[in-house]
Amino acid sequence: MHINTQTRAVIVIKTSHSSQNLHETSRFITASMKSQQELREAIENTARKFLGAYKEAGEQNDPAIINRDVTECCKRYFKPAGVLQLFGSPPVDGLSNADYEAAMALDLQKYVVTYSDISDVTVDTESRKSAATTVTGMKYKDGEEDVIEHSWVLDFNEDGSKVTKVIEFCDMDGLRRMFVKVYSDKQDSK
After folding, report:
1. Given CB 3.0 to 4.6 Å as the disulfide criterion, which of 139, 148, 153, 187 pairs with 167?
2. pLDDT of residue 8
3. Which domain of life does the protein's organism represent (predicted)?
4. Higher pLDDT, 7 or 161
5. Domain 44-188, architecture per CATH
6. Burial group, residue 54, by CB count within 10 angstroms (0-12, 13-18, 19+)
7. Is the CB of residue 132 less than 8 Å from the CB of residue 121?
8. Short-list 8, 37, 34, 178, CA closest to 110
9. Pairing of strands 163-170, 70-79
10. For the chain, what is the HEC assignment?
11. Rounded to an integer, what distance in angstroms lies between the CA atom of residue 150 and that of residue 127?
């Protein structure tokens, strides 16, 4: 096969452009992978801080800590439907930060979270979501202890630094026990 000088020059130019494009594409993919990894780490870190806030709020007796890792307009939704019935149907459009903090203030008068084992953490960077399960130890002011389990689905802002939406799937048996200890006197006074 005979390749003339002009053809050889075109092949060399195309090869060098292809090599340069490949290098630029490789750098772009590496940067994209790095930014996806950074986003994943930010989401996981924020999720763990958010879930750990329940224990910290009790340790510091400060219900405001519960909203430390959420946006101002974050809404909280509870599942299954029995949670809504048990608590007298909180808003279908979600509970605001102020309402959740007020409920937390009542809770802290009756119990504190002694531990929260976080597991099964999953992160989806494309949709900026995380899911996790928790097993939470609770100690009531009367000395009684209990355990309650939750599954969580959390939505995040663009950089993963704040939670924008919370879906909390509650252990109904544990929640009923907690409700009797924390809220039964409120029901009796009605």
Report:
1. 153
2. 44
3. Eukaryota
4. 161
5. Roll (3.10)
6. buried
7. yes
8. 178
9. parallel
10. CCCCHHHHHHHHHHHHHHHHHHHHHHHHHHHHHHHHHHHHHHHHHHHHHHHHHHHHHHHCCCHHHHHCCEEEEEEEEEECHHHHHHCCCCCCCCECHHHHHHHHHHHHHHEEEEEEEEEEEEEECCCCEEEEEEEEEEEECCCCEEEEEEEEEEEECCCCCCEEEEEEEECHHHHHHHHHHHHHHHHHCC
11. 22
Contacts of 121 (CB under 8 A, 6+ apart): 44, 47, 48, 130, 131, 132
The pTM (predicted TM-score) of the whole model is 0.78
Contacts of 115 (CB under 8 A, 6+ apart): 55, 136, 137
Which residue matches tokens 């879930």?
51
Q: Which residue has the tokens 């390749």?
A: 3
